[in-house]
Amino acid sequence: MLLGHVRRTPALIIANPKAGTDSFRLVPELIDRCARFLPGVEVHRTTGPGDATAVARAAASRSGAHDRPGLIFAVGGDGTVREVVEGLAAAGPADPAERPALMVVPAGTGNSNYLAQWGDLPWRDALDALAGTVGGPEPEIRMLDLCRLTETGALVLLGACSGLIAQALVFARDIPLTGRPRYRAALAQAAAVFRPYLGRVEVDGAVVHEGPTVLANIGGGRYRGGQYQVLPHSFLDDGLLDVCVIGAETDPQDVPELTRDGGHLDRPGVVYARGRRITVSDIGGEPMWFEHDGELLPREHPAVTLEIMPGVLPTVCRGDRPVG
Ligand SMILES: Nc1ncnc2c1ncn2[C@@H]1O[C@H](COP(=O)(O)OP(=O)(O)OP(=O)(O)O)[C@@H](O)[C@H]1O
Q1: Domain DAGKc: where (predicted)?
Q2: Which of 18, 113, 148, 227 sits at 20 to 30 Å (Cα–Cα) from 238?
Q3: Facing residues of 66 across strands?
Q4: For the whole model, what pTM was predicted?
Q5: CATH number of the domain encompassing residue 17
Q6: Closest ligand 1 atom, CA of 112?
């Protein structure tokens, strides 16, 4: 998919009216802005969980190159983006380069996907860049990697984590805040009571860590919760998964501050590696705490494996910086 084709083809907006606080107001403005440079715009407001996946899958499956939207906007938070991506990855031409390109318009509260693809550029400027308005950064279509959790078949977009970050999601349920402040409070509460588990991490079959473990984060995106840079060296289009393991040498309560700027990487007991297939296990006999894309996995897997799906998701990103 080339930018020129995207600009000459009608687009589809898939918007979650219940995401964040802004998406209802934002859609009319997005339609108006798209109408200035695209030949047509269809809009679908999602009706509930799973709807964005069904709509994206149906749109990507349309047979003619002219019926298929060149661009699909995912308007919402990271949950909406994940649903749209699930639909895009399940359908469409065999050659990923011919599939509709994704463009994220952030309307949630965490917005980690948008952050990875556009940094702190406001979405209106990103759209101006796509429209070719003079002065903005050049956009590019990048073929992003995804990964698959082999135990459940689930698609993983932002990343997955065992231990501390997974347990923080349990605390988040009872915190009456939204977005980044909610993740911040949940992580602090989880860290105060967290006990390391006995873990092992294998990368492409080689053991890179074995012992008391605070977390093993795999990605995917550099940021978790829109603010913790657990994988500061991760690129979303390098065909590899990054993994960072924080061992029990680090006090869990130091993790939020250390991961703000990648300061955890210099700590003893921290391992950073890359590979195509990563397995995280609890070898202490306990069911493991594990999440992916902010959703807790039922505690019934002693080990989970993530496998890279390289270069499968054409995505409009800021072109003058790495995507990660
Ligand atoms: N019409 C709808 N009514 C209720 N829920 C919906 C509707 N459409 C989609 N959803 C669901 O809303 C969930 C939350 O959406 P999303 O994650 O995008 O927003 P958010 O929670 O506000 O943002 P963030 O994840 O950034 O905090 C999604 O999992 C999706 O399935």
Answers
A1: 6-152
A2: 227
A3: none
A4: 0.91
A5: 3.40.50.10330
A6: 26
